[in-house]
Amino acid sequence: MIITGFIRSPSLTTSLILSFISSPHEPLIDFARSVFFKHHAFHNPFLWNAIIRSHSHGFHPKRALLVLRSMLENAVCLDEYSFSFALKACTKVGLVREGMQFHGLLWKMDFGEDVFLQNCLIVLFIRCSTEENEEVGDGIGHQQRRVAWEEES
């Protein structure tokens, strides 16, 4: 009834999405995603982040970036969670160039000083290490790298 549109309760739809999106069963996750996009829960950043997280932790991390792009196109506010899930997807698949684009976007959107996101970038650049992106890692201040290292130890 939710898929056909007979039930139009936003709270029920939200509860359903949140219940199924964290399931270990892929068909339930797919169902939650389809309900999300069918009912256009577009103004709730928390639900968007749940969908992005399901992709970044799932079998198709690149799809997390597509969802994030759709989030931007629909003028939904990104937050530090949106970026952290997207950076995790980049790290998982080795998308350094996309990670570098997120690095620039972080600074444009005033998230550049966020230590947690800087940690995500460090992990991306270390796990996908090449000579090209070692210079980018140098753009993250020495103090932040030291703090990140001490917090993980």
TrEMBL record:
Family annotation (InterPro entries): PPR_At4g14850-like_plant, TPR-like_helical_dom_sf
Domain of life of the native organism: Eukaryota
PANTHER family the record matches: PENTATRICOPEPTIDE REPEAT-CONTAINING PROTEIN
UniProt protein name: Pentatricopeptide repeat-containing protein
